[in-house]
User: What shape does this take?
Amino acid sequence: MTNTPTPAAKGPASYFPSIEKKHGQPISHWKELIRSSPLTKHMELVAWLKEEHGLGHGHANALVKHTLDEGAE
Assistant: This one.
């Protein structure tokens, strides 16, 4: 049996381990916040996560992009 390394996450998901480590919440927590927000525009959601929840721009942007892309299927 060979130990095949797990491929590194690409795109927005590549930020997920550091988001969880820095902010102490699972990604599912952040996605639920985004989905339950009355805001719908990408940059409005990014600004809200930054201002109300203390996320940095890169982390907020990655979470919003990944969450909105899921709903676009």
In short: The chain has four helices and no strands. The radius of gyration is 13 Å.
